[in-house]
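Blackboard transcription, Thursday session:
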Amino acid sequence: MKEDFLLSIRDLSKSFGKRKVLDNISFNIRRGKITGFLGPNGAGKTTTIKLLLGLIKKDKGQIELNGKEIQDAKNLKFNITIGALLEFPSFYSNLTARENLKILALSDNYQIDEKRIDYLLNLVDLKYDKNRKIKTFSFGMKQKFAISDALLNDPELLILDEPFTGLDPNSMDSLNKILKNFVKNNGTIFVSSHILSEVEDLCDWIVLINKGKVILKGELKSLISQKSLKEIYLKSTKNEII
Amino acid sequence: MKLSNVLKAEFRIQRKSSLVKFILITTFSLSILFGFIIFHSSYFAGPLSFLALMKGYENGFNFSISLNYSIFNILIFFIIIMASTTVSDEAQKGTLKTVLVKRVKRDEIIIGKFLFLLLFFFCLIVIISLFSLAIGGVLYGFPNISEKNYIIHSSLSLFFNYLLSLLLVVFPISALISLCLFFSVFFNNNMLPLISSLGVNFIFYIFAELDVYKYFFLANYMLYPLKTFKRMAQGLPLVWNPDVEYMLLATFLYSIGFLVLATFFFRRKEIL
Amino acid sequence: MKKFVIFFAFSLFFSFNLIGQSSFLKIFNRFEMKFDHQIEDIFFEDLNNDNLEDILIQTKASDIKKLLIFFQRKEGFDFAPSQILNFDKNAIIFDVGNITNQYQGREIVYLTSSSLRFYYLEENLYNPESIKLIDISSIFLSPSPESPVRCQFIWDVNEDKLDDLFVSEPKNLTLFLGEENGIFKESQKIDSNPFFTTRSPFRFSLEDSETAENFSQKTITRVPVLYVGDFNGNKRKDIISIFKGEIEVFFQNEKNKFSKEPDFKINLDILTEKEKKKLLHPIFTVDAADLNNNGLIDIVVSKHEVQAMASLSKIYIHLNKKGKINVTPDQILVSESAQGNPKILDINGDNHLDLIITEAKMGLFQIIKILITRKVTFENAIYLGQGGKYPELPAAKIKSKMRFDFEKLEESEGEIAYFSGDFSGDGIKDILKKIDEKNMLAVFLGRSEARKKMFSKKASYEIKEELPMIIIIKDLNNDKISDIIFNFRMDEKKKLVLFLSK
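(Written on the board underneath:)
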């Protein structure tokens, strides 16, 4: 049976000056699955995500959407609805949560849908804070708000960079449920994280990178059949290649 | 993507911005202060009368344009401050990447910001004009500019030329916004584009003093529309031609040129 | 071959550049006269009726008030004065005129506190002994220790080729009509304020050297000024007194008599009530000149407001309408940051008087520029008049610069343009530029063709010279070509330099 790849990344490279941040990385994001993206600090996770979101330009490599090559990663967002959560998300701090979502909806060419905004803020447990200014939010609240922003345009693909950072266990649990629910409704998720327990609980497939290179990729179930994810992670990031 | 959406978004962002609040409060307070000084210097003999801010003939148009012109000089600084930091501020705060992952095109962000700034400052000038015109009318009325029964300019022609000058002021403003936006795109902090814009404009102001080459510099046209009407309201001859043609051409080229450059570089900008 | 072509092209280019630019000495003869005293004042009069203007120089008064006279001969001037006349120490004001046919040439008439006396020409020199004409009491009571002042009180009002005398008394003006035998009978008294029509612009800093002689009379604001010219169109000269915007005209009837009361009187209300209340109220001058060449005297008022942030000049043109002038002006020309008063002269030779308004831009950046460069740029805007009507915009703007030495303001130098000379004799005024930095005089010829610029772009004639503060342009040898006189009054030099047209 042919595998159903939503996104295929081939030989993607990126350098900042002389420093090579991504070195010919290739992996696939499977439709309807949660792909975890693991790696130590500075491995190139955020760079990969920024490349996919068109914030920075690739040096070389291909990105294929449904088997079709997308020349410029900037155009990916016009071919598929993407919801994104960036590491350390920033919003208009002078404005309320609701106002921010309205602006982001407009930026995404959506008409402001007040009901959906209320629904999403309820979903991430910010029901009572929706009229508070973002600058009064704690980091965890901002992270939760960023999730509501990522879900705003009812995306097909969610790209999440460290979504669990700063969340309390309850919130982590509810985020876990939201994401699982999202996949249940035919959504696809590409999530980078440090928190291995969450990844283990959530992901179907994982891609592990270190120093700009993919060192491990595969279905989580088969990978953890012999060793725990933690063991695999620690070993691979030390020895680089198994 | 509809441009109106970008404009709406920009409007929602800016309406609560502290810089906008500062500009509005400063502009309106200064308008009241200048209005008072202009009125005082024209009505009462005293130290202020020596300033003769409303030189020439006293009427509502002269009051309005004297006030408007003084405020516009300050607005130029506000335009520079706001336009040169509009993109860099978002880059500094990180909201730029939040927006850029959405389905808005980068060109649209630049054009949206450009249009918003243009509309904002144009509306500000129009509001000050109407407001000061109403007060000027109450204080002095709108008689013809005449002396000893000799009509220098009729009030009707004053009115139409005021309207014209307000419409024409859009051109130098758009050129200035365009120029500052260009600097804003380059940097990820606010100081550098601000200093660059102020520096370039200051240099332009110096070069605009040159006899022949001044026609190439934006500073030569910044005050031109309002200044031309101000001269008329003072009883000086109304001279639109041929400088208005140079202004239209130069400011159009500045606006388009720097807008194209700004979008060109913004498309290639890496948001880290 | 290629080198040769380039060389040829270059030499052709440079030779074109040199064409038309030649030395002053091609068209002028240079004269330099030296004397023992500093110049106090300088006048030009045809003293001996030979159609050549002679030069009168008043020196700075020591014990003896001296008048140096240089008679012009066909060849020009001598290097030393033809005569040094010791002025009567009681002389207060003087003028020159032909008041009697008994003596050759013109007489130097002066007023003491009790009488009118004159020096007369005898064998081509003035007799140092003056003759008393009449005993008279005037407003002038005692002579000042300085040289007597040249004041115009002689006119030929009845046009009988004999000049008439106007003596200002406390409340009226006494007019003495000249007669063949030199006997002056008191002719008539006119109710007019005392007047003082100066002929010495430099001494009183009234105006620059470019008073539009023969055309207009500039008035100062403090003292009434008399002017003689046809006001009501009967071809006879009327007496026009101008004082602070009050104009009184005494018409001359067919019997050459004037009525005691003014026949026409108007107050132009130059200063508004508000302006009068101001601490520094606007400066104004009133000029009488025939702007539209219809033979009638028109009035030009220029008002200049001095303010901190703003200065605005207004020129009111009151055209004479069949012997009447209205308070409502026929035109108001408003100009920004104008300096001084307008010059009124016929630039383009169409017999209609044109206006030159000198403007200096004053804004924040200009002031910074002035402080840095110490240079001020003036623009002489030329408004070409047609039938007494002036266009709203000038036909040309000629730049001139001044460089300020803040410590020694009198040593400030620059580039000043003079407009009253016609150095080509074509009736069209040319520009004489005094360029202090290069110690150079340059003439830019005026053009008659409408399409071209008003003046030649390159100097037609140039000369390097040690330049004075003041230059006077006047046709001394009556050849319709202007001559140039260096007036070293301010420069404390005891000499005079002349450029007489060949």
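Lecturer's comment: Chain C has three helices and 36 strands.
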